[in-house]
Amino acid sequence: MADGMENVVALRPRPALRVVAKETGPHTEWADEALMLAHGEGDEVAYAQLVQRHQRGVLNFIYRMVQNRQIAEELSQEVFLALVRNAGRYQPTAKFTTYLYTIASNIVSKEWARQKRRPRLFSISSWWGRDGENEFNPMEHVGDEKASVMRAFEQGEVSEAVNAALRNLPEHQREAFVLRRFQDMTYDEIAQVLEVPVGTVKSRVVRAERALRPYLERFREYL
Question: Model pTM greater than 0.85?
Fold first, then answer.
């Protein structure tokens, strides 16, 4: 039996490497995969560009998962520290964003497990769904700088409503929904991140949308 299992493992196809062209222009014009490969060779500018390009998206994703500003910021730092630790072993077998959000998803899963082991303490702030007076608003990090003051207010209200509604979803549905609707990842990419079949991802997104609809009906025009 052991020999048979070893043969199965040995015959399992390895992910094909993506072809990454050698970049020569400014780092701002490089593909993510080229930046990560250069980072693995010690290019600090390449790493800085990756952080600048993706830190907002990672922070917004994690915040919507853990619903706590301080924890989201700490976990986001862990994600980019993981890029440093794994730089020398990086192989472009998928889009860089798939690789990045796989790391983020694993870190979020560990945080969820830690939270389930901790005793939950009641507090007024948690009852109202806030971390404190200056609640983190992801829309501030992705909003259009030319938007009007009223539009910014409306976006903030929508973002707060979405974050409150997301708390009502099971974790696996919340993650699939946020990756699809907020991070704009394809179903195939999400399936790679979560290590589940594409059909499972689609089912989770549909179920999440159905569950969220009653909470967000009055914001339909923004969503």
Answer: no
